[in-house]
Design goal:
The protein has helices at 22-47, 67-72, 84-96, 137-146, 161-170, 174-182, 200-209, 229-234, 238-250, 253-256; strands at residues 55-59, 76-81, 103-107, 122-128, 148-159, 212-220, 261-268. It is an alpha/beta fold. InterPro entries: Methyltransf_12, SAM-dependent_MTases_sf.
């Protein structure tokens, strides 16, 4: 039996919506809260080495949903993404946010990572929405981990199997829900745009096999994709209440099974560790 994972609790009071992108906030708030805390803790360590700006790698970071806010914290961020259009949008977004000097976009992908970035050169690696699309998820995780410095932070976000099954069932597509439930890749049919989905156990096993200690597992978008948008957008206080509910449910294993996405936070081995 797997030993219990220590669950870092998101600070519910600090979860805030973005007034300009309220629905997007529901999809990122929990991950951002946990990630920011992890980066702050890493700064405490590097600060003792007179280095408070972290080097962060965002694989598949696209237009900078996480990279730009991370850079706004004062860190240096390298985004590796295969899409030139996404990297162009990243450059524009970073400039608008006033962090262009701290954000670098490089065309590439996780399986060719060390063709474009330094091995072992980063304090933190974000691997969000990548493993669903690579041919070998285990290799993708291993390469992401190889980019970390000793005791570096790994933030992994992957599509959740249970969330897809639940969504198809609630939409009345019961055969597709059954197909996703039994398919080895968690797909509901030929028209499914997501090539692969994971359970929490599958993601933690991939991370542990790559030599990373799992510090926390969170369910993401447990309710956000199921609640009608008109309710969130028009009911006074609904957005803030839903954000707090998401944060409260995120750490509970019972809700991992129905989350649209799963977030794993881990720490690489330190110098001298076996």
């Amino acid at each position: 039996m797997r030993p219990p994972v220590s669950h870092h609790r998101p600070h519910t009071a600090s979860v805030r919506s973005d007034p300009s992108r309220p629905r997007a906030s529901l999809r990122t708030a929990v991950v951002w809260d946990v990630l920011k805390d992890a980066l702050d803790r890493r700064v405490e360590v590097t600060g003792r080495e007179s280095r408070t700006a972290l080097d962060v790698l965002d694989t598949g970071g696209g237009s900078g949903n996480f990279a730009v806010p991370v850079a706004a914290l004062g860190h240096r961020v390298t985004v590796v993404d295969p899409s030139p259009n996404a990297l162009f949008a990243l450059e524009r977004r970073a400039a608008e946010a006033g962090v262009a000097e701290r954000v670098r976009g490089v065309q590439g992908d996780v399986l060719g990572l060390f063709d474009v970035v330094e091995r072992g050169g980063f304090d933190a690696v974000l691997c969000h929405g990548v493993l669903e699309y690579v041919d070998d998820p285990a290799e993708g995780v291993r390469l992401a981990v190889d980019a970390l410095r000793p005791s570096g932070v790994l933030s992994l976000l992957g599509a959740g199997l249970g969330g897809a099954v639940l969504a198809r069932a609630l939409a009345g597509h019961f055969k597709e829900a059954q197909t996703a439930l039994t398919d080895p890749a968690g797909r509901w049919g030929a028209g499914d745009p997501v090539p692969r989905r994971f359970t929490a156990d599958q993601l933690t096993e991939l991370v542990e096999a790559a030599g990373v200690r799992v510090d926390a597992v969170h369910g993401v978008r447990v309710f956000a994709d199921l609640v009608p948008g008109v309710l969130v957008d028009t009911e006074p206080g609904a957005m803030e209440a839903l954000l707090k509910l998401e944060a409260a449910a995120a750490e509970l294993p019972a809700f991992h099974a129905v989350a649209t996405q799963l977030h794993v936070l881990g720490e690489a081995r330190g110098t001298g560790e076996a």
